Amino acid sequence: NDLTAVGMEDVVKIVRTSSATLRVLDVCNNEIGDGISVITDHLQHNNVLTKLNVARCGLSVRGASCLGELLKVNNSIKELGMGVNQIGDEGVLSVCEGLQCNKT
Fold first, then answer.
1. Contact status, residue 42 vs residue 12, Cβ threshold 8 Å
2. Is 80 helix (H, G, I), strand (E, B) or coil?
3. Of 18, 30, 70, 102, which is most buried, counting CB atoms within 10 Å of its CB?
4. Residue 1: per-residue pLDDT
5. Are the C-beta atoms of 34 and 60 separated by less than 8 Å?
6. Separation of alpha carbons 32 and 93, rounded Å
7. pLDDT number for residue 101
C-alpha cells in the first residue's frame, strides 16, 4: 500500500458507503500522517467500526489529537492500533483524554 494523506479521501468514500457494515479499518504501514483527520471526522458518527489500526502511519501529535477527539465520541471502537508513530508525550495525553471519556 502506498496510501498517503491525499489517498485518505478515497478511504473516506469507502467508509461513507459501507458505514453500516465496516467493522475493521486497517491503514497501517501507510504514510498518511495528519491526513488521519479526514477519516476521524467521518468515524465520529460511525457506531459499527470496532477496530482501527493506524500503526506505522507517520502520525504526529496532531494525528494523535484527532484520534483522542474521535475516542471521546465514538464508543464502538474497542481496538486501536497506533504503534510506531511519533506522537510524543503530548499525543499520548490526547489519546488518554479520549479514552477517559470513552464508554467502550
1. yes
2. strand
3. 70
4. 61
5. yes
6. 21
7. 92
Is 53 strand, coil or helix? strand
Inform me whether the pLDDT recorded for 53 exceeds 90: yes
Cell of 12: 473516506
In the numeric block, which cell numbers belong to residue 28? 497501517
In SS3 terms, 1-51 reads as CCCCCCCHHHHHHHHHHCCCCCCEEECCCCCCHHHHHHHHHHHCCCCCCCE
How far apart CA 103 and CA 96 sit, in angstroms, is: 13
Comparing CA positions, the residue from 56, 63, 61 lying closest to residue 83 is: 56
Interval 46-68 mean pLDDT: 95
Cell of 96: 488518554
Closest CA to 63 of 104, 43, 92, 42: 92
